[in-house]
Amino acid sequence: MVNAQERIDVIYNVVKNRNPGEAEFHQAVWEVIETLTPVLEKCPYYAKQKIIERICEPERQIIFRVPWEDDNGEVHINRGFRVGFNSALGPYKGGLRFHPSVLLGTIKFLAFEQTFKNALTGMPIGSGKGGSDFDPKGKSDSEVMRFCQSFMTELYRHIGELTDIPAGDIGVGSREIGFLFGQYKRITNRYEAGVLTGKSPLWSGALVRRESTGYGVAYFAEQMLKARNESLDGLSCVVSGSGNVAIYAIEKLHQLGAKVVACSDSGGVIYHEEGINLDTVKAIKEGARGRISAYLDEHPEAEYRADGNIWEIPCHLAFPCATQNELDENAAETLIENGCKAVVEGANMPCTPIAVDLFLDSGVGYGPGKAANAGGVATSALEMQQNASRDAWSFEYTEKRLHAIMANIHSDCYHTSEEFGAKGNYVVGANIASFRRVADAMLAFGII
Ligand code: NDP
Ligand code: 2IT
Asked: What is the CA(246)–ligand 1 centre distance, in A?
């Protein structure tokens, strides 16, 4: 008889061999399953039913060609993906990422993470993710529209409000969701609002969805501090990125009394000692779709560090909100040396495994993305509820629901970490709480 730890090692080797070259997927799988040994020991039935083996294998993976024509008449060929990872708790649900770095392994890691994140929300949503290696940067609105129309011309046959509901992620916001929905509606002859979330509130979208991921991250940080009898008031924060998640994390952190002194994009870092001016960041990023270096045009007293390392800026709280593996062990050491109290992930898997271990070992609070950034997908589920009942809730009511969901996620993770003898370790808490929820639903369905 193999023991639980040996079983986990075997599962991991199978995942590696079956998915060669997909390092990010391997990393995401290991990060979850290495914490599941005590669950297998407590409940051997999960092992007998091979639940972990099943949970690591996507239910479906779709890859397709996306041809489109640019404004000069040149033809381009991109690759489209949609992975339906797990539908035990509901239809596949998760975003679309448009970024030149996207490979199948990227989408698989994100869809795998989504399985546990979506379970933590307590909403009836399974997990999926999709996207393309298309780069929206520097493209005209017409080019983005033609790309989205071509992408949806294949994707439409695989999705539906009861099957799979995509939303945004890196490079996909309400502009792209609009073009995608328009094409879906046209091809299917259905105004099926619940097939996509992250829609504009001008036409069937939910208020607060745009703000929800970032707001949720700030709420999660607030809960983490509360559990240590501390508050956000007066704390200095660093938030990487300046996209959707970063902007609304900054907004809520400021509302809750903290001061964000730095943000970034892939070109460099802005450090503004008196506090980042969010109106300026919004005008650059949401308005002009420009580079963060333009911040200096309005605030010459701030500092721009081209190719700078944002984690070198001393702070009480660090919020990686850009992309995977953006915060490595060197950055973690610097943050710890500079007295950082907690790291809360807005992005998916932004901290490398060694960085995470360093935080856990040194007592720095660590909020993993699958818990801390779940407010986005949770609000997507609220958007689906509104679409299903043809209703539209107020901003205040929806934000209250989001706040309650984040507080619940925090207490689920906290109490599960306590139950498994690792009080305050949110990695253990988030992985085990969500795994049990998905596993129990899978068991109910038999061997499928
Ligand atoms: P956006 O496209 O709005 O913004 C992304 C930001 O991150 C930009 O500032 C971008 O800089 C930077 N960035 C992206 N890729 C890289 C890279 N490879 N290297 C350096 N910087 C990079 O995306 P979101 O804000 O929506 O997403 C940010 C993160 O949050 C992602 O990890 C996403 O998966 C996660 N997330 C998003 C949710 C959502 O609802 N949108 C929900 C939960 C998690 P530049 O513009 O220069 O490329
Ligand atoms: O990573 C994520 O949770 C998202 N990009 C949001 C997914 C969604 O369906 O709202």
From this structure: 8
Query: Of all protein residues, whose CA lies closest to atom 16 belonging to ligand 1?
Result: 323
Of all residues in the chain, what percent carry a pLDDT higher than 70? 100
β-partners of residue 60 are: 84
pLDDT interval class at 1 (50, 70, 90): low
Query: Minimum-distance ligand to the CA of 380?
Result: 2
**Separate counts of helices (H) and strands (E) for the chain:** 18, 12
User: How remote is the CA of residue 339 from the centroid of ligand 2, in Å?
Assistant: 31
Name the closest-CA residue to atom 46, ligand 1: 265
User: Beta strand 317-319 with 164-167: parallel, antiparallel or unpaired?
Assistant: unpaired
Mean pLDDT of the chain: 98
The closest-lying atom of ligand 2 relative to the alpha carbon of residue 168 is: 5
Structure tokens at 371: 């818990």
DSSP-derived pairing of the beta strands 236-239 and 259-265? parallel
How do the domains of the chain map onto residue ranges? 1-54+425-448, 60-192, 211-363
- Report how far ligand 1's centroid is from the alpha carbon of 370 (Å): 15
User: Residue 83 in contact with residue 130, Cβ under 8 Å?
Assistant: yes
pLDDT score recorded for residue 2: 83
CA nearest to 130, candidates 172, 175, 160: 172
Which ligand sits closest to the CA of 93?
2
Architecture of domain 1-54+425-448: Orthogonal Bundle (1.10)
Active site members: 129
In CATH, 60-192 is 3.40.50.10860: yes
Class of 211-363 per CATH?
alpha beta
* Prediction pTM value: 0.98
Same fold, 60-192 and 211-363: yes
